[in-house]
What we know:
389 residues, single chain, 21 helices
Amino acid sequence: xxxxxxxxxxxxxxxxxxxxxxxxxxxSTGKCIxxxxxxxxxxxxxxxxxxxxxxxxxxxxxxxxxxxxxxxxESVRAILLxxxxxxxxxxxxxxxxxxxxxxxxKVDERLVLIGYYSENGKTVLDRTRLRSxxxxxxxxxxEHPSTAEPSLRDLPDDxxxxxxxxxxxRKNLELRDNDVEVLKNAEKFFFGKDPAVAAxxxxxxxxxxxxxxxWANELAQLYRMFGIPGERIDDSGERAAEAYKRxxxxxxxxxxxxxxxxxxxxxxxxxxDFAGASAFAKIHxxxxxxxxxxxxxxxxxxxxxxxxxLPAARQYLLDSSTxxxxxxxxxxxxxxILAKELLEEGEKDAVLQYLANxxxxxxxxxxxxxxxxxxxxxxxxxxxxxxxF
Length: 389
C-alpha cells in the first residue's frame, strides 16, 4: 500500500474521532485504553461485552468495539475493524483464517483480515487471500457499508480481481436493484469509475429518500468533478445552469433550494473552477435567498481578483454592502474575505468605503468596524473576524 493510502486511512480515522468526539468523551479511561489496544492490534480477541449483539455475523473479533459501545453507525464499526487489521500480528491473521474455514460467515474476521492484507500483504498467498475476502464480501454482503470503502473497491496491482469486483457490482444491481443500501454502496463504487452509472444511481436513491439532502450534494459533486455525463456543453454559463437545474430537481427542502446556487458557487470556487463559480453566483443573485447579494458578490469579486480585474473586484465588494444585504449582515455581520484580499492588494480606499457602508448595516458591530477603520487608516491590517459564510 502506498503513502497516499496510508494518509487516506489516517485522515478517515481522525475524522471519525472528531465527528464522534461526544461518544469518546463519555468513554472512561479504562475503555479508552481498550480502544487504543484494539486499534494497534494489541487487544485480545476475547474482550468483554457490555451487552449482546444480534446473533447474525457476531464474532469475537468485534467484541472490543462492543465493549466500548461503538456499534452504530455500522459504517464506523466497519472502518474501525479495517483499521485495526493493519496492526494485527501474522499469527493472529492465521488464527482468523482458521476460524473462517470453520465459520465462513463471520464478517468481522474478514474485515480485520482485509485490513491486515491491505497493509501487510507481500506474498502471492497474501494477495490471493485479500482477493478472496474482498470478493466474498462484495458477493455475499453488498449491503454492508464496508464494501464502499476504498480497500474493497480497488485491489492494487490486481487487474483481474478488480474486473471481478466490477462484474459482481453489476450483478448486484441486477439482483438487488431495490435494496437502497446496495444502491448506496454501488454508487460509491461507480462514482469514480463510471459517472453515468453513478448519476443514475443517485437519482434512484433520491427517489427512495426524497428528503435526504446528501444526494443532491452528491450529484453536484459528481458534476463538479466529471461534468454532466453524456453532455458536452462548452459554455461555462450554460453548463452551470444545466447542472444547477438537475441538482435543484433533487433538492426538496425550500431553504436548501434557495441557497443551492450559492453552495454550488462556493464549492466550485474552492476547487478552482472560477468560471463555474461565477456562473453559479450569477444564478444565486437572481434568486430570493437573503444571503445572495452579499454571498454572490463576494464570490464574483474574488473571481475578478484572481483574473486581475481590480476595478470589478472593488465594485463587487461595494455591491456586497448595499441596503439589500441589511437583513443578512445585521444578523451575521459582514463577510470580510474579499475586503481582506483587496486590502492585501493595496485597495485601502475601497475597503474603507465598504466598512463605512457596513456601519449602517450592522449597528451592533459599530465598535469593531470603527476599530478596523482606524487600523487601516494608520496602515495596519486588522484581524478580521468573519472570513466565510
